[in-house]
């Protein structure tokens, strides 16, 4: 392993791409699996949890890891595609060890774990060798003093705590996309998941909830106070919030809608009035809407919003006032690819694609799929009987409804 550094910190591995010997990426590192034993000086690292494409976590033994670089992990390419299930004797470094309260034996210093280092021995085994910890904040300092000490000079790593905290686990997930963070949270124990949820801010929790399976969404929301649950629902996209509220007991759903801001609740109630598997039930009520006098420059500025998904940013909708759904009459749509070829001062209304028809709120999943395929689109406008824009259905909305239940847990390539 000539490319492998002598010491590797586990939290820095999270999110790194995993490649086979041919240079093809097979997944991303999610966690490090170790076996903790009180009678062993340096616990053995048995493998990595790797998320393969298709969002399925699998176990990769360290014997199949041939190199670890600062930006990648190289394997033999032989992966057991069985879904990872943690054994009783195993511990996840990221999911379970970060934020544990520990004490340094030699100095008496107390703090919380924010990272753990592993090293390769002469026998080519990987072991945990160092613990990075942060002292509690004292005085007016923003951060406590940090220490990196030998593994066997630390006590408290083997015990589980009821109030472990999640600050450092959250930090290790902060650079991950919401879908990747959701996959990590999905695998946590209920206690650890609760700690993480409590530490996340409302906006980040909303992003993660949108990527979790329905049963996880409901479980997490039911453990929040009603006030916080309403705040989180307000941060979610209206269509995802409507789907989640529909899965709650009717009395809980009604109470949360009452606690939400009126404008946010109005959009959610409107979506809930449509059938769940119709264009109305799937649509997003906040596409990019422009007035007839908007220029190409204005349109491009609007779609640069980093909060827009690629499918929502693919089309802009030109409507008569009002510009909030339900709008005035929809005059047409403009493709971003077309707008990129036009002078910035050109009116968007002059480059509209008026050749496509529009969907109605009662359109079925098959209708939506046929529409997107026919016009080679990733988003479709939904209008009412008067031609007013109600929202847009995107291809990712459609896939969420077409894929079988539990698709996130399906084996890649499984039939």
From TrEMBL:
Family annotation (CDD domains): CBS_pair_Mg_transporter (cd04606)
Record GO terms (molecular function): magnesium ion transmembrane transporter activity
Entry keyword set: CBS domain
Native source species: Nocardioides pocheonensis
Pfam family, one: SH3_actinomycetes
Domain of life: Bacteria
Location of the CBS domain: 283-350, 352-410
Keyword S-adenosyl-L-methionine: no
Name of the protein in question: Magnesium transporter
Any single GO CC term annotated in Swiss-Prot or TrEMBL for this entry: membrane
